[in-house]
């Protein structure tokens, strides 16, 4: 028997050829693109085939992911409304990372539906599947010449007022540009004021402190109504513990155990509790970027395919 957190391998037959394929119990769908918004039909087709073919973005070589052992899915989306028909008949356990930013009228997210529509979608999902299974992301937090820190805070607050009671987690991150040249170029083209120094869109110093203090107070207020609510920071090198914000584990073993304790294949992968109710947390997924604390899984999305065209996106290189 494999140790908890160890992904096994299977073999898949593609056009008469047999290929080795990773067979993870947890599927991420997807960090690389918005499958719920744009690729629901493709997703159903891959489930029927039982595998996904991906291209390594660095080497350009193909590799395969078997869906044979898939016991739970983590979906990521800015607009999961088109995915409702898929979820209605979906038999696997899942939860959803719903990135619901409030950047209307900024040009940052040109193809994302209006905030009002996305809020309604969020509430429908929470009503159907429970607030613990629909996680709110405000990601990334950034500033612009006409959108200073206090304006960003007001935008977060407007969404928080609408979502209180509909989710138990807010995951945040601050804009990162260092390794993402395409994102820097897109922002510079849209905002000539920051063309020379795109990094000015990243909240630092007093701007960051002001936002973090707001988030700390928001968490306190929210926990007065729901003690299970928390604010977490995704893949950030900084320590925000002074603001009671802990590092996020977006694909989260503790959450999966709490949500789906009767899912035996998933529990075996995550590691069952001992007689005293203790369970060793899984190690971080080594295949993810630095400071990511997600548990091991495999992502089935393709880079350069998301149609939202968000200026800050690292997954689109054009």
Shape designation: globular
Work out the helicity level. Answer: 25-40%
Radius of gyration using CA atoms only: 20 Å
Tally of DSSP β-strands = 12
Largest beta sheet: strand ordering: 11-10-9-8-7-6-3-12
Main sheet overview: 8 strands, parallel
What proportion of the residues form beta strands (DSSP E)? 15-25%
Q: Which consecutive residue ranges, at least 5 long each, have pLDDT under 50?
A: none
Structural class, from helix and strand content? alpha/beta
H/E series: EEEHHEEEHEHEHEHHEEHHE
Condensed summary:
This protein is an alpha/beta fold and 318 residues long. It contains 9 helices and 12 strands. It has one domain (8-299).
SSE blueprint and pairings:
Layout: E1 8-14, E2 17-23, E3 26-29, H1 35-38, H2 40-49, E4 51-55, E5 62-66, E6 72-77, H3 84-88, E7 93-99, H4 115-129, E8 134-141, H5 149-163, E9 169-174, H6 181-190, H7 205-225, E10 230-233, E11 246-247, H8 253-259, H9 264-270, E12 298-299
Parallel strand pairs: 2-5, 3-6, 3-12, 6-7, 7-8, 8-9, 9-10, 10-11
Antiparallel strand pairs: 1-2, 4-5
Descriptive tags:
single chain; 318 residues; alpha/beta; four-stranded mixed β-sheet; 12 strands; 30% helix; globular
What can you see in these coordinates?
The model has no long low-confidence stretch (mean pLDDT 96). The radius of gyration is 20 Å and the shape is globular. Strand 6 (72-77), helix 3 and strand 7 form a beta-alpha-beta unit. An 8-stranded parallel beta sheet has the order 11-10-9-8-7-6-3-12. It has a 4-stranded mixed beta sheet with strand order 1-2-5-4. It contains 9 helices and 12 strands. By secondary structure, it is an alpha/beta fold.
